[in-house]
Every structure is written in C-alpha cells, then in structure tokens.
Amino acid sequence: MKYDLIIIGAGLSGFMAAKRAAEGGLNVLILSKGLGVHQIFSGCIDLLGYYPEDNSRFLESPFEGIQGLTTSKTSHPYFLAGIDDIIDGLNSFLDIFENEYCYIEGKNQLIPTSIGTLKPSYLIPITMIDGAFPFKDDILLLGIKELQYFSSPLAALNLKRYGNVRSNEISIYEIINQKNIYPVQIANLFDKAEFREKFITLISKKIKGVKLVGMPAILGRDKFREAINHLESELDVEIFEIPTLPPSIPGYRLYKRFRRYLDNLGVEIRLGVEVIKGEVRKGKIVQLLANLREKEEIFRAKYFLLTTGRFISNGLKAKKGTVSEPIFNLPIYFLKDKEKWFNYDFFYPKGHMINNFGVMVDNRFFPVDEKGDRMYENLKVAGSILAYHNSFREKSGAGIAITTGYSSVSDWIKYERQY
Ligand SMILES: Cc1cc2nc3c(=O)[nH]c(=O)nc-3n(C[C@H](O)[C@H](O)[C@H](O)COP(=O)(O)OP(=O)(O)OC[C@H]3O[C@@H](n4cnc5c(N)ncnc54)[C@H](O)[C@@H]3O)c2cc1C
To answer: What separation, in Å, do the N-terminal and C-terminal C-alpha atoms of the chain show?
Structure first.
C-alpha cells in the first residue's frame, strides 16, 4: 500500500499529525477540501485563556488551568492528550516556528484585538508581540481609509482604558488609485519595496514623534519581515500588527510556512478533494471515496485520521435538530433539545452549548459509540471536531488542534516501528 496514513483535513490539527507521523517514518497523504480555519484565525496560538470557562479573569498560566481541567474534565481533549504530549506538541510546532512566534515560558500574554479588547494567548506571532500589554510606550494606531477591515478610532477608543493610545487614519488613494482595498491585495502591495517607499513618504509626517505604531495585520504576505524592517528603519518607529477580520494574513503566513515544511518532509497534500465516504469491512476502514472536480476517486491506507473541523469547515453538520459527521457517520455528542444549543444571552459566561458538540473518542482518540466501545480499529479523530471543549470560550482553539493532532498518531508510529 502506498500510504500508511491518510489524514482528512488540512487545518492545524491535520498538519500537526502529518508532521509527527512523517517524522516518525510513516508515509502520509493529506486529502482536504480547503484550507480550514487557517484562513480566518488571528494567527495567535491560544493554549488556555480561561478556566473554568465562565471565569472572567484570564489565566496567567495556561498550564495551571490545564492542570485543573485535566483533573476535573476527563473527556476534554487536553485530558486525552495528557500534559507530556501537550508540551511536546507545542515544542514540535515551535520546531518550525521558533523564529516566528514569541512566548514567555508558562505564561499567557495579552494582545490587542481589532476592536480594542485584550486577548490572552500563548504563542504570539513575532509581528504582534510589540503590542503586548502592558504597553511599552504610547501607541499610535494607524488605519488605512481604503481598507475597511480595521477601524483605528474604534480600537483606540477601547484601548485607551489600558494606556495612552490614539489613532490616525490615512488615505493611500493617491498610491493605489482605488477606493477600496482588500487585505490580501494590500498585503501583496506591502511585499513590494516600491509600494513601501511611497507609503513611507505618505505617512512620515503623520507619525513624527511617535515611537510605537499599531497597524492591521496586512504588512506583507510573503515578505512581511522585510516589509516591517523596512518601515521601521525608514520611519524610526517600532511597528506591531493587530489581527483583523478574515481573510487572515497571519493565518496565510502560517499555512504557507507549515506547508513548505511538510512538502520537504515528503508529505503529499492534495487540496480540492472532498472525501464523501469511508468504506468499512470487518471493523476497519478499507478505503475512502472522494470527489475531485466532479470525478470520484478511491484512496487506500492502513490508518485514517479525521481532522475535518467543526461546523465552519463542514466537519459537523446540523440539520433538523440533529448533528452529524458526514463521512463516517460517527456518533456525536449533542443535545437533543435544540432550545438548549444556544443561550439567549449572547455573552453568557459559560458560552453556548453548541460549541461543545463533537465526535466522542476514547483516551487514544478512537471514535466510540454511546456505550464507549471503539468503532473502528484504524480510524482516529483529532482537532476541533472532538467533543467536550468550548474553545471559543476557553480560548484554547489552536492549542487543542496542535496538541491533539500531535498526540493522536503516536501509537501508530510506535506500532509501525515494532513491525
Ligand atoms: C473565526 C475563528 C477565529 C479563531 N481564532 C482563533 C485564535 O485567534 N486563536 C486560536 O488559538 N484559535 C482560534 N480559533 C480556533 C482554531 O483556529 C481552530 O479551532 C483550529 O484551527 C481548528 O483546526 P482543525 O484542524 O481542527 O480544523 P479546521 O481548521 O476547521 O480544518 C478542517 C479541515 O478539514 C477539511 N474538510 C472538511 N470536510 C472535508 C471533507 N469532507 N473532505 C476533505 N476535507 C474536508 C477542511 O477543508 C479543512 O481543511 C478560531 C476559530 C474561528 C472559527
């Protein structure tokens, strides 16, 4: 058989599982319809921001929270991964990104969001770290009129609670000659030195006397380091990025870097492939049926890992009061009473119940039925599709994806090494 392992999904959990499996000697294929939450998330790797989830104070140490969580919530994905794999999984992520992410050992940091709140996170993109709270200087938030995804006056209004923050919005119409610009377009422009020179000339007078400037996270797609260094040295300021609305440029940067790493490891990645069904024989998945540009294709492997995400990526589907997993029809933890899926108070401190729904697994990530019995001997599940975590409320999304993706494939690696 050509592949030891097929991973369904090209999100963070699928990529982390692929990294570990390929480094462990497995031949890996990733099949995915799209790019997953990479395209919309902030780029910050949240590990655990709040625990218990209705606590209004953020956790200074995510690991203290994880310790509490893993003794009280034995179905939570962090309990299943275990503290050793949580640490090893983060380190494995940092193998690739050690020059691109900053962190303080064992501590969350607070960084500004585009609406001017502060968000706790653990691994912070290097382009955002200079904006971490407490602010090291007075801040000027610089918006761009033609980019409607970031309002510097709104962000500054809210951030004023935490320090001396003011805003300015500049028009770049005379450089781009268009009224509106999208994040990807402007990030492409910042990759070009010629555009940057014009931008520097335009803003240099407006930021005189300022030492620290916050801008939306659009300062270059592929050459963001070069772009930020150029702006900083010409303008004699420090610049930090603030995550904005999707599409996410920091998410794109992460995807691109990770993908290059996996390509070099020999992982085969096929995008635009929608897996429709898994065929079962004698308690094992034998093959996948997939759609590729209206054509059906069959894929075979020894092992299969499902990392198709939640509702937003179509890993879970909700219809007529039930929730289903469309490829293998795995049993899902959800509430039969639809009234209880959402709380009437949008900001309910415990979050909405729908955000806990997902696939039920045992302590080695094998999906189980309502009695807790393993369903298939060669299928596992990892990432946000797992049940019993509310990552929106806990602020644990990318942390769960990274650590469960990493942990889920370990016994297959060990098994293959033995035989
Ligand atoms: C708007 C938003 C903002 C967020 N911001 C943050 C943040 O700032 N920090 C943080 O830590 N976390 C954040 N999160 C959470 C976190 O990013 C996600 O939980 C995590 O990235 C999910 O990764 P995943 O691999 O489990 O799933 P996904 O990224 O959802 O990936 C699922 C993959 O499966 C593929 N797929 C689905 N169905 C099929 C099929 N039938 N056949 C083939 N492929 C299929 C999809 O195309 C996709 O590639 C955010 C989440 C959202 C929704």
So the answer is: 15
pLDDT digit string, tens, across residues 174-227:
999 999 999 999 999 999 999 999 999 999 988 888 999 999 999 999 999 999
Quick one: which of 396, 309, 402 has its CA closest to 85? 402
Residue of 68, 52, 134, 121 lying closest to 90 (CA atoms): 121
Distance CA 311, CA 317 (A): 6
Please tell me the number of Cα atoms within 13 Å of 21 on its side-chain side: 30
Ligand 1 in reach of 274 Cβ (< 6 A) = yes
What letter would DSSP give residue 177? -
Query: Among 12-26, 72-86, 376-390, where is mean pLDDT lowest?
Result: 72-86
Question: At residue 15, does pLDDT exceed 90?
Answer: yes
Q: Is 303 helix (H, G, I), strand (E, B) or coil?
A: strand
- Site to probe by mutation for ligand 1, drawn from 37, 110, 328, 409 as the one with most ligand atoms within 8 Å of Cβ, is 37
The whole-chain average pLDDT of the chain stands at: 95
Tens digit of each residue's pLDDT (9 = 90 or more) over 392-409: 999 999 999 999 999 999
Q: What are the structural domains of the chain?
A: 3-100+251-315+325-335+375-418 (3.50.50.60), 129-242 (3.40.50)
- Name the token pair of 275: 């897996």
- Alpha-carbon distance of 137 to 152, in angstroms, equals 17
pTM check: above 0.90:
yes
Residue pointed to by tokens 């034995």: 74
Give the separation between CA 103 and CA 105, rounded to whole angstroms. 6
Ligand 1 atom at shortest distance from the alpha carbon of 243 = 8
- Range from 169-173, 234-238, 292-296, 360-364 carrying the lowest mean pLDDT: 292-296
Q: Could you tell me if the CB of 170 is within 6 A of ligand 1?
A: no
Using left for φ > 0, alpha for ψ between -120 and 50, and beta otherwise, residue 143 falls in beta
Give just the sign of the alpha carbon dihedral 8, 10, 12, 17: positive
Residue partners of 271: CB distance under 8 A and separation at least 6: 10, 32, 33, 34, 35
Closest ligand 1 atom to 276 CA:
41
At 88, give phi and psi (nearest 5°). -65, -35
217: nearest Cα among 133, 160, 141, 154: 141
